[in-house]
Design goal:
The protein is of the alpha+beta class. The protein contains six helices and 13 strands. The chain has two domains: 146 residues, Ribosomal Protein L22, Chain A; 81 residues, Ribosomal Protein L22, Chain A (Alpha-Beta Complex), CATH 3.90.470.
Length: 253
């Protein structure tokens, strides 16, 4: 169980700890994925107020609703801090941009990153190889048979039909979350029809063919009422995932 030792007053990661973490990472050479799942709250070093002070209100002014703006600014600020922790650089020098399809990119770095938001939570991920993370609320009313017909492969639908009706909504949301994580790792966004993407196994397939060496998994210990999925390029990467809820942190997978 990870402890919240690196969250200090006014800053998320102490500079000395950041250098140590980055150095340990370089020396070990482990192919690792770092994931943070965070509650969107006002206060604290990863809260909305600090995130706005760090990035400026204009960074997310294009978001449709106030809730979208809050999630978005927290996700960007958390990703900035996670990259800083991973690389040892000052967070002020981390620049997150997007490509023409909306995929987040790091300026001047070969690291891959991913972002997701849903309800009261956001998630971000950093890896040396392509990565996709998604988080979804499990109680979405639109997760019914009609949605399953629209977004699932035949094999996924058959697997859903074998479940008790009471378990189908949760299972469909988990499939959806996996699909979103995979399309983010591929960088294709909404361009890939979900009904061609099979994520019923950890090795996703697109129209029957393996999806560019990607692997997908559900992260255990997701916040109550949410599903979190992670897609990685390569199966044997070490995943260091943390759940940060209202200022506390613990291991999620
Ligand atoms: C955009 C998309 C990647 C996720 O959208 P979403 O679930 O609405 O939103 P999420 O909160 O999970 O993720 C949003 C983040 O995805 C990232 N993203 C957007 N486009 C991306 C792309 N092409 N590749 C990788 N990541 C992308 C961005 O970082 C974005 O956050 P930001 O704008 O704050 O930077 C995409 O999967 C999508 O449009 N999904 C809908 C697919 C769909 O409906 N398919 C058809 C069903 S029949």
């Amino acid at each position: 169980m990870l402890k919240i030792t690196n969250y200090e007053k006014g800053r998320v990661v102490h500079p000395r700890r950041r250098r140590l973490y980055a150095t340990a990472h370089r020396i070990s050479g482990i192919a690792a994925v770092d994931v943070w799942v965070l509650a969107v709250i006002d206060d604290g070093p990863l809260g909305v107020d600090t995130a706005r002070a760090m990035l400026g209100a204009s960074a997310t002014a294009d978001r449709r609703t106030i809730e979208d703006q809050r999630r978005s600014v927290v996700a960007r600020a958390a990703l900035t801090q996670l990259v800083a922790l991973r690389t040892g650089v000052d967070p002020a020098r981390v620049r997150v941009t997007s490509d023409e399809r909306g995929r987040p990119l790091l300026s001047g770095s070969a690291l891959h990153v991913s972002i997701a938001h849903s309800g009261d939570f956001v998630a971000c991920a950093v890896s040396t190889r392509p990565v996709g993370v998604d988080i979804e609320r499990s109680d979405r009313s639109e997760a019914d048979d009609a949605l399953a017909k629209r977004v699932c492969t035949l094999a996924e639908r058959q697997a859903l039909e074998r479940l008790l009706p009471s378990s189908r909504t949760g299972a469909l949301i988990r499939l959806w979350t996996r699909k979103e994580a995979v399309v983010k790792a591929l960088g294709v966004g909404g361009a890939l029809p979900f009904e061609q993407l099979d994520v019923s196994h950890s090795a996703p397939r697109i129209a029957g063919a393996r999806a560019r060496g990607l692997w997908v998994r559900d992260l255990r210990g997701a916040p109550d009422g949410y599903s979190v999925a992670l897609a990685t390029a390569g199966r044997w990467q070490c995943v260091r995932a943390r759940l940060v809820e209202a200022g506390k942190a613990s291991a999620t997978a």
